[in-house]
Amino acid sequence: MALNSFYDNFSSLDANKGIVGDFAHASALYRRNNFRLAPKNSFLYHIVVDVNTTALSTLGSSIFNILNKREFNLLASSADLPSYTIQTETLPQYNRKKVIQTMINYDEVGIEFHDDNAGLTTLLWEAYYRYYYQDGNYTDQSSRPRSYATKLYDTDIANTYRHGFNRRRTTDIPFFNSITIHQLHPQNKESTFTSFTLVNPLITSWSHDRVDQSNGSGVMKNNMRIAYETVLYDREITSKENIQSFGDIQHYDTVPSPYNSVSTSGIAKNTDDNTFWPELFRDLLSNIVDLTGFNSQQRQNQLPLSVQPITQTTNPPANTTNFFPTTVNQNITTFAQPVAFQQENLSLSDQEFKRQLQSNPQKLANYAQSKAQIQISVFSGLNLQESKQFYNNLSPNVKAQVEQSALNNFNDLEKGAVGNTTGFQNDLKEIGIIG
Fold it and tell me: Do 231 and 194 have their domain in common?
């Protein structure tokens, strides 16, 4: 039976393309207008669990100082976006059915955290548990607290312990101000977000993960489910100030990549020509990897170590085994002298990092800022955010001096000990940044 022309893509050259076509439709839908209608990525998000600082302070300075950094926000590995259930009722109306709304229900959402080695997400639950319930506050009376060792007919004094919601201090202040889930996505060439703020959230369940010695590749999780009273929506341009703790230099790599996208507009697009692919890969190597015209002389200054040339000799040295016969003349051996480390006594990664600082002004500027703001914080008593703001207000000339000092003292700064930063500290004192 003859195929309908709408579905026939093969039997006739002039047939309608039917349901089989090229990528033009997807390109027109998703790529046009700066990917305006392209779907969002599920792995681009940032969650802000806003803990009330007043409530947190009632648990003691130790817990407050740890959780007030808000690092647990970065450990949210997944989360449900809000969902709603609308209750409706069908009523008769003049020989027809009429559907009316009677209530909107806000369904619980789940948030999953990494159970980190520092124990931050577990401490988040412990703080919530101790804030609302008295039970978790009996932790200093041996393995079985006296509050749980009383007998039925003990004296009145022995049975005066508080339990559950019977707290000594009030819990009128909510532990969570709000919980906001930010979807990150591009829009009109700008980095933007769509946020969902859960108002008056309360934990309805918390579950620690399951330990299993047979699971050699799994990671531990902490799961909580949240009930809330309503949802607020917002859309803004993404910035460090607009999303709490987003882009913090302590946990985000804010240094621009040294690699640039390669334009092939100047390369002939005739793929039948044997010159197309060689030119394309030559362009890639030249602009990204920088390996064109490779030889030991040209690469000498780009390598982090001092490299000795490979030599040939008819008299192999007696004190080494680093030689082997050549394929051309069995009487001539090739001797490869071992790499000699520089006198800087730096690891390979540190030497490579220093070379990048020397060749990348932006990377050097960010490095100097991170080192300087630590010293400013130590000597002035400012926190890191305030020290960063102080540094940003310095003149370009002063920043240039700091950058040069950071490069000159790189070896000492990377050794890690406080005493090894003396040279950098002295320079900052001479510049007038610290006292």
Answer: yes
Question: Would residue 332 count as lying in a domain?
Answer: yes
Helix (H, G, I), strand (E, B) or coil at 125: helix
Residue 218: helix, strand or coil by DSSP? coil
Q: Which tens digit of pLDDT belongs to each residue from 254-283?
A: 777 665 554 544 444 554 555 555 555 555
User: What is this structure's pTM?
Assistant: 0.56
Spell out where 53-96 has E strands.
76-79, 84-92
The verdict on 162 and 198 lying in the same domain is yes
Q: Which domain, by its residues, includes 277?
A: 263-290
Q: How far apart are CA 89 and CA 395, in angstroms?
A: 67
Structure letter (DSSP) for residue 67: H
User: How many independent structural domains does the chain possess?
Assistant: 5
Q: Are residues 270 and 229 in the same domain?
A: no
Residue type, 56: L
Q: Mind listing the pLDDT tens digit for each residue in 373-424?
A: 888 888 887 887 888 888 888 888 888 898 898 888 888 887 654 445 678 8
Alpha helices in 95-210 (DSSP H): 120-132
